[in-house]
Protein backbone atom coordinates (compact mmCIF):
# COMPACT_ATOMS: atom_id res chain seq x y z
CA UNK A 1 0.00 0.00 0.00
CA UNK A 2 1.39 3.35 -1.03
CA UNK A 3 1.68 5.56 2.09
CA UNK A 4 0.31 8.45 0.04
CA UNK A 5 -3.07 6.72 0.24
CA UNK A 6 -2.73 4.97 3.58
CA UNK A 7 -3.22 8.35 5.22
CA UNK A 8 -6.78 8.46 3.85
CA UNK A 9 -7.74 5.16 5.42
CA UNK A 10 -9.94 6.58 8.18
CA UNK A 11 -11.68 8.95 5.78
CA UNK A 12 -12.56 6.12 3.38
CA UNK A 13 -13.64 3.76 6.16
CA UNK A 14 -16.06 6.40 7.42
CA UNK A 15 -17.73 6.87 4.06
CA UNK A 16 -21.17 5.32 3.78
CA UNK A 17 -22.36 3.76 0.55
CA UNK A 18 -24.09 6.90 -0.69
CA UNK A 19 -21.85 9.41 1.04
CA UNK A 20 -19.10 8.03 -1.15
CA UNK A 21 -20.38 10.19 -4.00
CA UNK A 22 -19.76 13.39 -1.99
CA UNK A 23 -16.33 14.98 -1.76
CA UNK A 24 -17.26 18.40 -0.47
CA UNK A 25 -15.03 18.18 2.57
CA UNK A 26 -11.43 19.43 2.49
CA UNK A 27 -10.16 15.89 3.07
CA UNK A 28 -12.25 14.63 0.17
CA UNK A 29 -10.75 17.24 -2.11
CA UNK A 30 -7.29 16.33 -0.83
CA UNK A 31 -7.94 12.67 -1.66
CA UNK A 32 -8.97 13.56 -5.20
CA UNK A 33 -5.87 15.70 -5.70
CA UNK A 34 -3.65 12.90 -4.39
CA UNK A 35 -5.22 10.51 -6.93
CA UNK A 36 -4.80 12.91 -9.84
CA UNK A 37 -1.20 13.70 -8.89
CA UNK A 38 -0.28 10.04 -8.42
CA UNK A 39 -1.76 9.03 -11.78
CA UNK A 40 -0.19 11.96 -13.61
CA UNK A 41 3.26 11.39 -12.13
CA UNK A 42 3.34 7.61 -12.61
CA UNK A 43 1.71 6.95 -15.98
CA UNK A 44 2.36 8.15 -19.51
CA UNK A 45 -1.31 9.05 -19.98
CA UNK A 46 -1.22 7.44 -23.40
CA UNK A 47 -4.19 5.95 -25.23
CA UNK A 48 -3.00 3.73 -28.06
CA UNK A 49 -4.27 2.29 -31.31
CA UNK A 50 -5.21 -0.81 -29.32
CA UNK A 51 -6.27 -0.61 -25.68
CA UNK A 52 -7.32 -2.91 -22.86
CA UNK A 53 -9.68 -1.01 -20.59
CA UNK A 54 -10.64 -2.11 -17.06
CA UNK A 55 -13.66 -0.39 -15.50
CA UNK A 56 -13.82 -0.38 -11.69
CA UNK A 57 -11.73 -3.54 -11.64
CA UNK A 58 -11.88 -4.27 -7.90
CA UNK A 59 -15.34 -2.88 -7.15
CA UNK A 60 -16.77 -6.34 -6.44
CA UNK A 61 -14.43 -6.87 -3.52
CA UNK A 62 -14.07 -3.35 -2.15
CA UNK A 63 -16.88 -3.14 0.38
CA UNK A 64 -18.06 0.33 1.31
CA UNK A 65 -16.83 1.47 4.70
CA UNK A 66 -14.00 -1.07 4.86
CA UNK A 67 -10.34 -0.83 4.06
CA UNK A 68 -8.94 -3.15 1.43
CA UNK A 69 -7.64 -6.49 2.70
CA UNK A 70 -5.68 -8.21 -0.06
CA UNK A 71 -5.61 -11.64 1.61
CA UNK A 72 -9.37 -11.73 2.19
CA UNK A 73 -10.30 -10.15 -1.12
CA UNK A 74 -8.12 -12.45 -3.20
CA UNK A 75 -9.87 -15.52 -1.80
CA UNK A 76 -13.24 -14.19 -2.99
CA UNK A 77 -12.01 -12.67 -6.26
CA UNK A 78 -14.32 -13.69 -9.12
CA UNK A 79 -12.89 -15.39 -12.18
CA UNK A 80 -13.77 -12.41 -14.38
CA UNK A 81 -11.67 -10.07 -12.25
CA UNK A 82 -8.75 -12.50 -12.22
CA UNK A 83 -8.92 -12.73 -16.01
CA UNK A 84 -9.00 -8.97 -16.49
CA UNK A 85 -6.16 -8.41 -14.03
CA UNK A 86 -4.11 -11.05 -15.85
CA UNK A 87 -4.74 -9.28 -19.16
CA UNK A 88 -3.50 -6.00 -17.75
CA UNK A 89 -0.37 -7.66 -16.41
CA UNK A 90 0.47 -10.05 -19.23
CA UNK A 91 -0.86 -8.66 -22.51
CA UNK A 92 1.94 -7.40 -24.76
CA UNK A 93 2.71 -3.81 -23.81
CA UNK A 94 4.01 -3.08 -27.31
CA UNK A 95 0.69 -4.17 -28.74
CA UNK A 96 -1.70 -2.72 -26.15
CA UNK A 97 -1.99 0.28 -23.91
CA UNK A 98 -3.57 -0.57 -20.54
CA UNK A 99 -6.20 1.84 -19.20
CA UNK A 100 -8.13 1.84 -15.95
CA UNK A 101 -11.38 3.74 -15.53
CA UNK A 102 -11.69 4.19 -11.80
CA UNK A 103 -13.25 6.10 -8.90
CA UNK A 104 -11.02 8.08 -6.55
CA UNK A 105 -11.97 5.93 -3.57
CA UNK A 106 -11.10 2.63 -5.19
CA UNK A 107 -7.98 4.06 -6.81
CA UNK A 108 -6.79 4.97 -3.32
CA UNK A 109 -7.90 1.64 -1.85
CA UNK A 110 -6.40 -0.71 -4.41
CA UNK A 111 -5.94 0.05 -8.10
CA UNK A 112 -3.14 2.60 -7.62
CA UNK A 113 -0.97 -0.43 -6.87
CA UNK A 114 -1.20 -1.46 -10.53
CA UNK A 115 0.12 1.97 -11.42
CA UNK A 116 2.95 1.61 -8.90
CA UNK A 117 3.84 -1.71 -10.52
CA UNK A 118 4.14 -0.06 -13.93
CA UNK A 119 1.20 -2.01 -15.37
CA UNK A 120 -1.03 0.94 -16.33
CA UNK A 121 -0.52 3.51 -19.09
CA UNK A 122 -3.48 5.77 -18.41
CA UNK A 123 -6.03 6.46 -15.65
CA UNK A 124 -9.45 8.01 -16.25
CA UNK A 125 -11.43 8.96 -13.15
CA UNK A 126 -15.17 8.57 -12.63
CA UNK A 127 -17.71 9.35 -9.95
CA UNK A 128 -18.15 6.59 -7.37
CA UNK A 129 -20.58 3.89 -8.42
CA UNK A 130 -20.78 4.92 -12.08
CA UNK A 131 -18.54 4.33 -15.06
CA UNK A 132 -18.95 7.69 -16.80
CA UNK A 133 -15.71 9.71 -16.76
CA UNK A 134 -15.73 13.01 -14.91
CA UNK A 135 -13.81 14.79 -17.66
CA UNK A 136 -14.73 13.83 -21.21
CA UNK A 137 -11.65 15.55 -22.60
CA UNK A 138 -9.75 12.47 -21.38
CA UNK A 139 -11.67 10.43 -23.96
CA UNK A 140 -10.69 12.44 -27.03
CA UNK A 141 -7.59 10.26 -27.76
CA UNK A 142 -9.94 7.31 -28.30
CA UNK A 143 -11.02 8.98 -31.55
CA UNK A 144 -7.74 7.78 -33.05
CA UNK A 145 -7.95 4.25 -31.65
CA UNK A 146 -8.56 1.10 -33.68
CA UNK A 147 -9.66 -1.46 -31.07
CA UNK A 148 -10.75 -1.02 -27.46
CA UNK A 149 -11.21 -4.18 -25.40
CA UNK A 150 -13.34 -3.53 -22.31
CA UNK A 151 -14.01 -5.47 -19.13
CA UNK A 152 -14.94 -4.70 -15.56
CA UNK A 153 -17.55 -4.46 -12.82
CA UNK A 154 -20.55 -4.22 -13.09
CA UNK A 155 -21.72 -4.72 -16.66
CA UNK A 156 -25.11 -3.06 -16.60
CA UNK A 157 -24.00 0.09 -14.78
CA UNK A 158 -20.32 0.94 -14.82
CA UNK A 159 -19.09 -0.94 -17.88
CA UNK A 160 -22.13 0.09 -19.88
CA UNK A 161 -21.65 3.73 -18.81
CA UNK A 162 -17.96 3.71 -19.74
CA UNK A 163 -18.62 2.12 -23.12
CA UNK A 164 -21.34 4.62 -23.88
CA UNK A 165 -19.00 7.50 -23.05
CA UNK A 166 -16.12 6.09 -25.10
CA UNK A 167 -18.45 5.57 -28.05
CA UNK A 168 -18.85 9.33 -28.20
CA UNK A 169 -15.26 9.48 -29.46
CA UNK A 170 -14.06 6.07 -30.60
CA UNK A 171 -15.02 4.50 -33.93
CA UNK A 172 -18.21 2.51 -33.37
CA UNK A 173 -16.81 -0.91 -34.25
CA UNK A 174 -13.61 -0.39 -32.28
CA UNK A 175 -15.27 -1.35 -28.99
CA UNK A 176 -14.92 -5.05 -28.16
CA UNK A 177 -16.26 -6.20 -24.79
CA UNK A 178 -14.29 -9.08 -23.30
CA UNK A 179 -16.79 -11.91 -22.89
CA UNK A 180 -15.26 -13.55 -19.84
CA UNK A 181 -14.03 -10.42 -18.04
CA UNK A 182 -17.28 -8.62 -17.17
CA UNK A 183 -19.44 -9.19 -14.09
CA UNK A 184 -23.16 -8.52 -13.93
CA UNK A 185 -24.91 -8.12 -10.58
CA UNK A 186 -28.36 -8.11 -12.16
CA UNK A 187 -29.78 -11.63 -12.68
CA UNK A 188 -32.62 -10.57 -14.96
CA UNK A 189 -31.88 -11.43 -18.60
CA UNK A 190 -34.11 -8.71 -20.05
CA UNK A 191 -32.15 -6.09 -18.16
CA UNK A 192 -28.93 -7.51 -19.52
CA UNK A 193 -30.32 -7.53 -23.03
CA UNK A 194 -31.38 -3.91 -22.61
CA UNK A 195 -27.87 -2.99 -21.55
CA UNK A 196 -26.38 -4.76 -24.55
CA UNK A 197 -28.57 -3.17 -27.15
CA UNK A 198 -28.75 0.30 -25.63
CA UNK A 199 -25.03 0.89 -26.06
CA UNK A 200 -24.88 -0.87 -29.42
CA UNK A 201 -22.40 -3.45 -28.24
CA UNK A 202 -22.27 -6.64 -26.25
CA UNK A 203 -21.50 -6.74 -22.54
CA UNK A 204 -22.30 -10.03 -20.93
CA UNK A 205 -21.06 -12.34 -18.22
CA UNK A 206 -22.56 -15.56 -19.55
CA UNK A 207 -24.68 -16.82 -16.65
CA UNK A 208 -26.49 -20.16 -16.90
CA UNK A 209 -29.79 -18.38 -17.60
CA UNK A 210 -28.57 -17.66 -21.14
CA UNK A 211 -28.99 -20.49 -23.62
CA UNK A 212 -26.05 -21.31 -25.85
CA UNK A 213 -28.03 -20.32 -28.92
CA UNK A 214 -28.81 -16.83 -27.61
CA UNK A 215 -25.36 -16.54 -26.14
CA UNK A 216 -23.65 -17.46 -29.38
CA UNK A 217 -25.84 -15.19 -31.49
CA UNK A 218 -25.18 -12.18 -29.28
CA UNK A 219 -21.46 -12.77 -29.23
CA UNK A 220 -21.36 -13.07 -32.99
CA UNK A 221 -23.51 -10.01 -33.57
CA UNK A 222 -21.66 -7.71 -31.20
CA UNK A 223 -18.11 -8.99 -31.63
CA UNK A 224 -17.39 -9.95 -28.06
CA UNK A 225 -13.94 -11.52 -27.69
CA UNK A 226 -12.49 -14.12 -25.37
CA UNK A 227 -9.64 -13.01 -23.15
CA UNK A 228 -7.21 -15.67 -24.36
CA UNK A 229 -7.15 -14.07 -27.82
CA UNK A 230 -5.53 -11.00 -26.30
CA UNK A 231 -2.63 -12.98 -24.87
CA UNK A 232 -1.61 -14.53 -28.17
Structural features:
232 residues, 9 helices, 5 strands
Q: How many domain modules?
A: 1
User: Which strand order does the major sheet show?
Assistant: 3-2-1-4-5
CATH topology name, in short, is Rossmann fold
Task: List segments where confidence is low: pLDDT < 50 over at least 5 consecutive residues.
Answer: 187-191, 193-223
Strand content: 5-15%
| Order of helical and strand elements | HHHEHHEHEEHEHH
What's the total number of strands? 5
Q: In CATH terms, what is the architecture? A: 3-Layer(aba) Sandwich
Alpha-carbon Rg, integer: 17 Å
Give the averaged pLDDT, no decimals: 78
Q: Please state the overall shape, judged from the principal axes of the Cα atoms.
A: globular
Global structural class: alpha/beta
Intertermini distance? 32 Å
Q: Percent of residues in helical segments?
A: 25-40%
Describe the sheet with the most strands: 5 strands, parallel
Oligomeric state of the chains present here = single chain
Broad CATH class: Alpha Beta
Number of helices: 9
Characterization of the model:
With 232 residues, the protein is of the alpha/beta class. It has a single domain (3-182), classed as Rossmann fold (3-Layer(aba) Sandwich), CATH 3.40.50. The protein contains nine helices and five strands.
Secondary-structure blueprint:
Layout: H1 3-6, H2 9-13, H3 26-42, E1 50-55, H4 70-75, H5 79-90, E2 97-103, H6 104-116, E3 122-126, E4 147-153, H7 155-166, E5 175-183, H8 189-198, H9 212-222
Parallel strand pairs: 1-2, 1-4, 2-3, 4-5
Helix pairs in contact: 3-6, 7-8
